[in-house]
Amino acid sequence: MKKQKIIFYKGMLLLFVWAVSLCSFAQNITLRGNVSDTKGDPLVGVTVQAEGSTAGTVTDADGNFTLPNVPGNATLVVSYMGMRTQTIELNGRTTLNVVLEEDAELLDEVVVVGYGTQTRREITGSIANVSEENFNKGINRDASDLLQGKVAGLIVTSGSGDVTRGSQIRLRGTSTLQNDQGPMIVIDGIPGGDMSTVSPSDIESISVLKDASSAAIYGSRAAGGVILITTKRGSGAKNLLQYDGYVSVDQVANKPDMMNAAEWRATNKELGNDISNFDGYTADTDWFGEMLRTGISTNHSISLSGGGPKHNYRASYTFLDRTGIARDNEMTRHSFRFQLQQRAINDRLRVGLTGSGTLTDMRFPFRDDFILAYNMPPVYPVYNEDGSYFTAANNAYDQGNPVQNQDQNYRKASNNYFYGAGDLQFDIVEGLNLKASLYKSRFSSDYSEWEDPRNSRGDGNNGLAVRQARKWDRELMEWTANYETTFGADKTHKFDAILGYSWENNVFSSQRSQATDFVVNSMGADNIQSGNSLKIGEVTSSKNAYKLISFFGRAHYSYQDRYMVTATVRRDGSSKFGKNHKWGTFPSASAAWGISQEPFMEEIDWVKDLKLRVGYGVTGNQDGLQPYKSLELYSAAGTYYSDGSQLTAYKISQNANPDLKWESTAMLNIGLDFSLFNNRLNGTIEWYDKQTSDML
H/E/C letters for each residue in 482-518? Predict the structure, then answer.
């Protein structure tokens, strides 16, 4: 028993000593220290902060710092622009000397370029890369919002409050009069994409190929530049479920300042206008206020990602609901995306599958209804006392009730977009791999329009209904061979090259019908056959197709990151052009001099990076050109009688043009990249000359 008591007292004593030491350890201390670089030089302005606390300070001119009231068990975060951030556990220490290493990640950052990747050091063209951590924060309704103000020369504009319209993107100005061309969009290596089909929460990085020497690898569709979007991939390290969402409000910034009823009467009286016909109207209507509202946007995104040593996956779903500031404007979108990748044969074989779907329902506003709002006297009410829509007697000063038009008329569309892609890559020998990619997509649209006979827009035709169905099928197949090697005594020479073949087929089809003079209006455009007036030419259908075949290649050489040269060529053959000019060749060349890597720059330690670039290239354009523009076409031209029958007559509507040729854009680009004062000041200065010839 006595022995047990001794053991008990010893245990209590140890517990007491441990508790006392813990209390002492947890007490706040004053921490002093110094921060320097690997050369021993003091660093000024380094941020020293206790993790999870507001306690923090910066180093002085000698690199010294003092941080009072720090918990003895705190974790210290030491950060400085251009240096690797260090996280240090104090463990009761009161003095601390920290050595920070340069962060070479900025220059060694891997940047996605056409059909491959390069480190920022190796780039010879004008390429801007924006990674997820540098995207615009806050509410981003589509991918273009992520880039607003992030890339020099890239202009992102939204011309109206219409929620069904995406942003307009222009890179270094307009390159063509045909189709008002913007940059070509490439999503996960698939050219010809649409930014609206990618949720901002699914994007990992965006590269912008600004000059022709960088974009020429895409040939005939790169005259307006190229935007490369890389979506997120699963990680084999862990399974991760993520959610993000937002609710935002849109309001009219500058609503027209219209006269109220009293001001309207006083102004007309002052002008000598006879407004006795309006004496019976006592309303005070703000017509723009009635037609506008507060728009609300709601977004929910959820994703699941993960994998293992040999595979990874990611799946995501996004719901976006937007009501516009106009009462007849709204949009709902469901988007999903998945990605799978499997590795085998000692990681020499990689198989990937990607799929995406977007379902969008839209209601487009009738913009000219707002013209009616300018004309409607404020003394007119929106509704009669019985709740019916107001219409002025004899339509005096009344071109229609715009609120009634918004409620009874509509223009709607349901758009569906689906695509599936698969790729297979095999490493034949070290440095050489072959890759095959297959892609297929379908875009379908169901459009309906209804102008109700009960209001001013539809009463002239006693109702108007339009239905249109469109479909676009696209197939793409690409084969590439990539080779890279290093050579020389110290592996200071680096060479890589790519050769590729691309085949693309596009098929468009459309059907449209229109009718007027409706007896029943309850079904709107969904009962188009009830219209009594169906005229020749109001039921149409069409189908067209075009193909694009391409051969392309690129070679890149680098010596010690000091001297770099890149040459690219692409030859495209398009069925759109005349028989004498089916093929177009689009070459480019660029070079860069890493001045900061020269021996004579070693003593200039405030220059982190300095690189001079020059490039010239030619890109083409065929977008917006109708598939059969080079052929002789016929169209219906009335009727004629033959053997007692009325037959459709045809005429030549378009003469053949065998010399219809490629539009091309040539660009000379000179740039200087710099990073100074331990990466605290970074930038690019560029000059370019851009000329378009043989405009379509």
Answer: EEEEEECCCCCEEEEEEEEEEEEEEEEEEEEEEEEEE
Q: How far apart are CA 567 and CA 404, in angstroms?
A: 62
Decide if pLDDT at 149 tops 90.
no
Which residue is associated with the tokens 């007697």?
Answer: 393
Quote the distance between the C-alpha of residue 668 and its chain's center.
Answer: 26
* Phi, psi for 397 (deg, rounded to 5): 55, 25
- Cα end-to-end distance, the chain, whole Å: 105
423 pLDDT more than 60: yes
* Separation CA 472–CA 363 (nearest Å): 21
Answer yes or no: are the C-beta atoms of 91 and 71 closer than 8 Å: no
Distance CA 142, CA 197 (A): 9
Rounded to whole angstroms, the Cα distance separating 346 from 343 reads 8
How many whole angstroms separate alpha carbon 572 and alpha carbon 620?
9
Question: Six-digit token pair at 562?
Answer: 């000091």
- Tell me the pLDDT tens digit for each residue of 53-68: 656 787 887 889 988 8
Cα distances (angstroms) measured from residue 168 to each of 92, 148, 313, 549 = 57, 11, 33, 29
Model confidence at 3: pLDDT above 60: no
Residue 383 DSSP class: B
- Dist. CA 195–CA 145, nearest whole Å: 10
Round to whole Å and give the CA distance between 216 and 73: 57
Least trusted range by pLDDT, from 26-40, 276-290, 441-455: 26-40
CA distance 628 to 611: 47
The residue behind tokens 């043009």 is 657
How far is the C-alpha of 275 from the C-alpha of 298, rounded, in Å? 47
Using CA atoms, how far residue 43 sits from 101, 608, 676, in Å, is 11, 15, 15
What is the phi-psi region of residue 546: left when phi exceeds 0, alpha when psi lies from -120 to 50, beta otherwise? beta
Q: How many CB atoms are located within 10 Å of the residue 213 CB?
A: 30
Helix, strand and coil in the chain, % to nearest 5? 15, 50, 35
How far is the CA of 523 from the CAs of 389, 449, 535, in angstroms? 20, 12, 21
DSSP 108: H
Q: How far apart are CA 407 and CA 294, in angstroms?
A: 17
Judge contact between 235 and 180, C-beta under 8 A.
no
Q: Which two tokens stand for residue 220?
A: 């005939």
The closest of 515, 398, 411 to 463, measured between CA atoms, is 515
Mean pLDDT of the 465-491 span:
93
In a 13 Å sphere around the CA of 86, the CA atoms on its Cβ side amount to 18
Question: Is residue 609 a contact partner of residue 673, using CB atoms and an 8 Å limit?
Answer: yes
With a CB cutoff of 8 Å and minimum separation 6, the contacts of 591 are 124, 563, 564, 565, 566, 613, 614, 615
Q: Quick count: other Cβ atoms within 10 Å of Cβ 530?
A: 16
What's the rounded Cα separation, in Å, for the pair 542 and 335?
Answer: 29
Is residue 307 helix, strand or coil? strand
Compute, in degrees rounded to 10, the torsion defined by CA atoms 572, 575, 579, 584: -10
Max CA distance (Å), the chain: 131
Inter-residue contact 516 to 458 (CB < 8 Å)? no
62 with 56: CB under 8 angstroms?
no
- Is the pTM higher than 0.85? no
Could you give all domains of the chain from N- to C-terminal order, each with its CATH number?
Answer: 2-100 (2.60.40.1120), 106-231 (2.170.130.10)
Q: pLDDT of 331-367, one tens digit each?
A: 999 999 999 999 999 889 999 999 999 999 999 998 8
Q: Can you tell me which residue has the tokens 């990151």?
A: 561
DSSP of 516-579: EEES--TTGGGGGGGEEE--TTSEEEEEEEEEEEEEEEEEEEEETTTEEEEEEEEEEEETTS-T
Q: Is the pLDDT of residue 416 over 80?
A: yes
